[in-house]
Amino acid sequence: MHLQRIAPNGELFNAEGDYATGRWSGWSNQGASQLKEVTSTGTGAVNRTFAVGGDNRIYENDGDYATGKWSGWYALAGSPEVKAVSAASDGNTVHLVAIGLDGRLYNSDRDFAGGNWNGWTDHGGNGLKRLTSATTADHVNHIIAVDANDQLMELDADYAARKWSDWQVAGPAGGFRAQDVTATASGNTVHLGAIGLDGNWYNTDGDFDRGSWNGWWNGGGGNLKRVTSAMANNVNHVFAVRSDNTLTERDGDYNTGQWNDWATPAGGGDATALTASFTQ
Length: 280
Prior knowledge:
Blueprint: E1 2-6, E2 12-18, E3 23-24, E4 28-29, E5 37-43, E6 46-52, E7 58-64, E8 69-70, E9 74-75, E10 82-90, E11 93-100, E12 105-111, E13 121-122, E14 130-135, E15 140-146, E16 152-158, E17 163-164, E18 168-169, E19 178-186, E20 189-196, E21 201-207, E22 212-213, E23 217-218, E24 224-232, E25 235-242, E26 247-253, E27 258-259, E28 273-277
Antiparallel strand pairs: 1-2, 1-28, 2-3, 2-4, 5-6, 6-7, 7-8, 7-9, 10-11, 11-12, 12-13, 14-15, 15-16, 16-17, 16-18, 19-20, 20-21, 21-22, 21-23, 24-25, 25-26, 26-27
């Protein structure tokens, strides 16, 4: 597990969690400043980190865990000015989505097997504030955003059919009003988590083979404001930031159907934003 947090001073820190041994490394400074938002995703052994800088542009830093080397930060050419960003991977391809300062959604894709970024496209939206994304096994990238009314909205990019859907209310009928949102995928199921306006974390699972969601349930936490998640071995690891900027974690094992209780991940730390991902 690669857990990265933006500290209140705008610097980015990284910690590694080994769930086989139950051990976490200490936090290492990743040499950035004035960061506002961060996202990450794994392609093979590489953890690809994207952050929004003080100039509202997107910057990338790639950590190759096969060689033990990081690329160093560099700006993405042509990046729009943005206020939120989310990355999802499908094999060696990264689907990067961002909310512009105009509240609209923008997308760019890159095949890291040898291709370049394909440029930014505008996919609309209205007053979007937060977002997440997860790609299912059928090569559909499910993008969920919080709009101006705190409503969760979904936009699906079907890369197999080369089609994008229209924006629609996300999740179970009636949707959900949220402060922040996160999503992971296993097979063709999306595990959607959101922090409600009451500060608690809620979860629902969408089976896109059957076209159904199983309904929201309240996972508690209290006084939460930011959230991220990462999935491996059918276990969903959810990390949240409390109102006092401290971190907390809760894990859902979909093999056993059990969730553990909220607890501070080893090493603790303060954050204003965070991201989690796995590499092979």
